[in-house]
Design brief:
With 398 residues, this protein is an alpha+beta fold. The chain is built from 11 helices and 27 strands.
């Protein structure tokens, strides 16, 4: 069977739902939090020169920006054709082939592909203070801007890591001259730039939205992160938890003639958003319970209030069967329980070996989402809990 026929056959057999394979991504820096439900022996499965595995990506049609040793498909989602995924194809190829049948007319017309992805971000230590470029700055280096959001699922946070506190932006009383001085010290010593910022202790079961151009230093809880199809940043902090980051981390996404231009580097910030005196009021995202929730299931908006993407947490109570409808396509990962999702058996991962198939991740076409997915919780005791990530076209997103 050729790839085109295989894509069509798999789509029809799954009644508009693709079953996806786990995508684990290493990073060269920091320490792994080891909450990805990956076997303890497998965090260096790609070799010590790649760093430990610290992320799992979902519904991704883009590759990770992850250095010269990364394979060209690192970070990209595959659709399983058979039970063990020994036969598979890229989700990107399926969307290119089926187009609006999968993602709907609106997304296909506007973007030509699925425009977002999500990830589990799992660090034992805090990450460096950094920003993601906006569309204009990213376009100069052939990339796209990157807004992102955070949600902290209790099911995946059995320990808080070393620093469960996140810095956002800069204090409203800080001047851009103070930030300039710290960035000019990037190669001369510890610039301790988070001294100019403000921090919030992470609350499990809540989240934040971070626009492009806003610096942030994520804390050490595992984070579920819906985000735009991009992987592009500028790092303001040069030493974190004793680990030294080279100057290239500050400027790797600057044009060659701007890499020593401090004014250009500063211009990557949205200064007004960074110094918002009501930052938490503007960007904190407590969960919002959907009005259609009932005694069988509960749905909450956990990512909302932006023009790029949204996310929900769906809980089906023990022993219940529900039909859940959404107006648009979405990706989803099961984080607790076991049961049935459409025509697929599903179970949350407990401990995966690297390269092993799982039963916890799916991509739902717009047509299937609108018709409704029949979901059964086969447990007598535990809830069935999904995280669902959407593109920018959900009409009822708060």
């Amino acid at each position: 069977m050729n790839t085109v026929n295989k894509i069509r056959h798999t789509f029809e057999q799954g009644e508009g739902i693709f079953r996806l394979t786990p995508v684990f991504v290493p990073r060269r820096f920091a320490q792994a939090g080891k909450r990805l439900r990956l076997h303890p022996d497998d965090y260096y499965a790609l070799g010590t020169n790649r760093g430990s595995i610290k992320e799992r990506w979902f519904s991704s049609v883009i590759a990770a920006m992850n250095g010269p040793l990364a394979p060209i498909d690192e970070g990209m989602s595959y659709v399983a054709v058979n039970v063990d995924a020994s036969d598979k194809f890229l989700l990107k190829d399926a969307i290119e082939e089926l187009g609006a049948e999968v993602i709907g007319e609106e997304l296909h017309r506007k973007y030509g592909t699925w425009p977002m992805y999500s990830k589990f971000f799992d660090f034992e230590t805090p990450l460096f203070h950094h920003l993601h470029l906006d569309g204009a700055a990213a376009d100069l280096v052939g990339r796209m801007g990157k807004p992102e959001a955070y949600y902290f699922p209790p099911q995946l946070n059995n320990h808080p890591g070393l620093f469960p506190v996140t810095y956002f932006g800069y204090d409203p009383d800080v001047t851009i001259e103070q930030v300039r001085a710290r960035l000019l010290d990037f190669e001369s010593g510890d610039n301790r730039i988070t001294e100019l910022s403000r921090a919030y202790r992470i609350e499990l079961g809540t989240g934040w939205y971070t626009p492009p151009g806003v610096v942030h230093a994520p804390g050490s809880y595992l984070t579920y992160e819906p985000q735009w199809n991009s992987d592009v940043n500028s790092v303001h902090e040069n030493i974190v938890s004793g680990e030294v980051y080279p100057y290239e981390f500050l400027t790797e996404n600057c044009p060659e003639d701007k890499k020593r231009d401090i004014e250009y580097i500063l211009s990557l910030m949205d200064w007004e958003k960074n110094t918002d005196p009501h930052y938490k009021k503007t960007y904190f995202r407590p969960p919002l319970i959907c009005s259609h929730s009932d005694e069988q299931h509960i749905e909450k908006w956990i990512t909302y209030g932006n023009e790029y993407f949204g996310a929900k947490e769906l809980t089906v109570l023990p022993g219940q069967t529900v039909i859940v409808k959404d107006p648009v396509a979405y990706g989803t990962v099961l984080i607790q329980g076991h049961g049935v999702f459409g025509v697929h058996d599903t179970e949350a991962a407990v401990m995966l070996r690297f390269g092993q198939m799982s039963g916890d991740e799916f991509f739902v076409s717009e047509q299937a989402a609108q018709a409704g997915i029949t979901i059964t919780n086969r447990s007598k005791w535990e809830p069935l809990v999904f995280l669902k990530h959407f593109g920018p076209n959900y009409p009822e997103m708060p």
